[in-house]
Design brief:
The protein is of the alpha/beta class. The protein has helices spanning 42-60, 73-83, 96-101, 142-154, and strands at residues 12-14, 20-22, 30-35, 63-69, 88-91, 104-109, 112-117, 120-124, 130-134. The chain contains 4 helices and 9 strands.
């Protein structure tokens, strides 16, 4: 997994509207980059809704919120519509970006092992350096913790 003070891996991925979003175009902004397992599941829905509610506060901090999963752009559109989300979701179907960030890992569930997304969040500064890492995220109060960390990093 990427560590604090490392350069964030560059990325170009399609968003929910099939428009390519590239990290190089976001230079000069703070990025809250969160990886989540799947659209329309309970934990992921809670997390996305809380990020949507807090989006104006993040915007005031000159930060953009990007959610990333391996779901298709079509699934992202459905998720955004169904949950009335106001954030950008990126589709990493190849898992290449997730592998670069180290969040695509071996997981265990009911005795079965499989590769999957470990819920994680990164705060990247305007120069493209990772300034905070939240690993194995518990959804409850996570957005508030990310926001507090961003405020403290900017102080």
């Amino acid at each position: 997994m990427i560590k604090i003070d490392e350069k964030a891996p560059e990325f170009c991925l399609p968003n929910q509207d099939d428009i390519e979003i590239c990290s190089r175009d976001l230079k000069g902004k703070w990025i809250v980059l969160y990886f989540y397992p799947r659209d329309n599941t309970p934990g992921c829905t809670t997390e996305a809704c809380e990020f949507t509610q807090a989006a104006p506060d993040f915007s005031d901090l000159d930060a953009i919120i990007l959610g990333v999963s391996a779901d298709t752009t079509k699934k992202h559109r459905n998720f955004i519509e169904k949950q009335n989300l106001g954030i950008t979701l990126l589709s990493d179907e190849s898992t290449e970006m997730m592998q670069e960030y180290g969040v695509w890992q071996m997981k265990k569930n009911y005795g079965k092992e499989y590769m999957g997304i470990v819920r994680s969040t990164f705060i990247i500064n305007p120069e493209g350096i990772v300034k905070a890492v939240f690993e194995k995220v518990r959804v409850k109060e996570h957005v508030a913790k990310v926001q507090a960390e961003l405020v403290s990093l900017q102080a």
